[in-house]
Every structure is written in structure tokens, then in C-alpha cells.
């Protein structure tokens, strides 16, 4: 009876060993099975083997070690990156390629406005006096190169017409003309007789005849001095 038990035990041990070898053969087959190619890397043109070795970006496939910053060569997988002029950069190195706004000293990431030999964010280019944005708006400079909108420039520097007390400024960008008489400034349209509104000209007898701080035509001048 005891020998019979040992015989059964010996057969069981052999069976277990065969099962272990079979299981190991299956594991070896699984490990040795070749991984499927994901496709060709857009950079090195080699096969990408295994999902952990590849990534998709910019509509193409790359090896993880091929998709790197153009400047510092750091991997860009799962990181912010920028693609410009055919080159890919990490965020830090991309910002270093950008110009800085002359006003706020921050990098200009989107539209850039260039004026007076400097660069600006469009929203940072403002009138020095009133602070209104000058993006797409006419502007001018004063003697100290301060940027001013036309309205503020006129308030500071435009002449005032003695007749109507309005600023003598251009209309629709046209050239501005003023007339100086009796050390005073006038609009061309306001340079006329204060009595009859006849406009003065260079024709004989049609000019201005000042009298007691008034602009008069020849007719009313004669009446005033008679």
C-alpha cells in the first residue's frame, strides 16, 4: 500500500513538472512575440515599435526621443510646445525667440504692432496723455517723441482761431492752413470782415483793413474811420 502511494506521488510530481514547462513555454512565446510597428517616424524615418516609444503630434508620428525641442533638445511629450517656421520649441525656448513689447516688456505671442521704430502689443500702444488705444488710429509725436492721438496733440499744440475760438486743425488728414493777422490766428474761412462777412482776398481793394482790433473790409474800414 505504501509503495502504491509513492508511485502515485511520483507520477503526480512528473505531471506537475510537465505542466510547469508547458506554462513557461507559453510565457516565452508571449514575451518573444514581436511588437507591432506603429508606423514610420516623421523625423528619422525609422519604424516606431511599441506604443510606449511613439507619440502623435502635428498630424504625424514620432519616436518619443525624436520629438524634442529644436534648441534645448528636451523631450516634448506631454509638455506645451510651439511649432513655427517648421521648427518645434518648448515653451521657454519659443518665448526667447519672440520680441518684447516696448511698454510692458512682455513677450509678444500674437499680433505685433510696429510704430516709431519699436514693437508693441496692439493693446499697449496708447496715447501718452489720454490713454486711448491707438491701434489702427492716426497718431503723432510731440517734440519729446511722446505718442499722442490727434485730439490730444491738437489740444496741446494747435492754434485757436481768434474769430470762432475753435482749434485750427486738419480735417480728414488734409493739410492745415492758418492766417495770421494782427498777431492773431484765424481759420481761412474765418478770415473775413466782421461786419459784412465778405472774405478777404489778395485782389486790390478786397484785402483786410484792421481797425481797433477788428478785421474790416475796405468799405467798412472807411466808415469806421470817417
Question: Can you tell me about this structure?
Answer:
- The chain is an alpha+beta fold.
- Strand 15 and strand 16 (214-216) form a beta hairpin.
- Helices cover 23% and strands 23% of the residues.
- Residues 1-9 have low confidence and may be disordered.
- The strands form eight sheets. It has a two-stranded antiparallel ribbon with strand order 1-2. Strands 3-4 form a two-stranded antiparallel ribbon.
- It has four helices and 16 strands.
Task: Summarize the amount of helix as a percent range.
Answer: 10-25%
Span from first to last CA?
A: 164 Å
Strand percentage:
15-25%
The major beta sheet can be summarized as:
2 strands, antiparallel
Q: What string, H for helix and E for strand, traces the elements in order?
A: HEEEEEEHEEEEHEEEEEEH
Class by SSE composition:
alpha+beta
Indicate the mean pLDDT. 85
- Point out poorly predicted stretches: 1-9
How many H/I helices?
A: 4
Q: Which word captures the global form?
A: rod-shaped
Radius of gyration from the CA trace?
Answer: 44 Å
Number of strands: 16
Strand order of the largest sheet: 1-2
Helix-strand blueprint:
Elements (H helix, E strand, L loop, with lengths): L1 H31 L4 E4 L6 E3 L4 E4 L2 E4 L17 E4 L2 E4 H6 L16 E3 L2 E3 L18 E3 L5 E3 H8 L1 E2 L6 E2 L10 E3 L2 E3 L22 E3 L2 E3 L1 H8 L1
Antiparallel strand pairs: 1-2, 3-4, 5-6, 7-8, 9-10, 11-12, 13-14, 15-16
Amino acid at each position: 500500500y505504501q509503495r502504491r502511494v509513492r508511485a502515485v506521488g511520483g507520477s503526480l510530481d512528473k505531471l506537475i513538472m510537465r505542466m510547469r514547462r508547458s506554462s513557461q513555454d507559453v510565457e516565452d512565446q508571449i514575451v518573444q512575440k514581436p511588437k507591432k510597428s506603429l508606423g514610420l517616424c516623421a523625423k528619422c524615418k525609422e519604424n516606431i515599435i511599441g506604443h510606449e516609444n511613439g507619440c502623435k503630434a502635428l498630424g504625424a508620428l514620432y519616436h518619443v526621443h525624436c520629438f524634442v525641442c529644436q534648441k534645448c533638445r528636451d523631450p516634448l511629450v506631454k509638455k506645451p510646445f510651439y511649432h513655427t517656421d517648421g521648427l518645434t520649441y518648448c515653451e521657454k525656448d519659443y518665448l526667447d525667440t519672440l520680441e518684447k513689447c516696448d511698454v510692458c516688456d512682455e513677450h509678444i505671442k500674437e499680433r505685433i504692432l510696429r510704430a516709431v521704430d519699436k514693437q508693441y502689443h496692439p493693446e499697449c500702444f496708447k496715447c501718452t496723455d489720454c490713454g486711448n488705444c491707438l491701434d489702427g488710429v492716426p497718431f503723432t509725436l510731440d517734440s519729446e517723441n511722446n505718442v499722442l492721438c490727434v485730439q490730444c496733440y491738437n489740444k496741446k499744440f494747435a492754434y485757436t482761431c481768434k474769430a470762432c475760438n475753435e482749434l485750427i486743425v486738419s480735417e480728414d488728414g488734409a493739410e492745415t492752413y492758418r492766417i495770421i493777422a494782427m498777431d492773431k490766428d484765424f481759420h481761412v474761412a474765418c478770415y473775413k470782415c466782421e461786419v459784412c462777412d465778405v472774405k478777404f482776398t489778395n485782389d486790390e481793394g478786397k484785402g483786410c483793413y484792421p481797425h481797433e482790433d477788428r478785421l474790416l473790409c475796405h468799405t467798412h474800414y472807411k466808415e469806421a474811420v470817417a
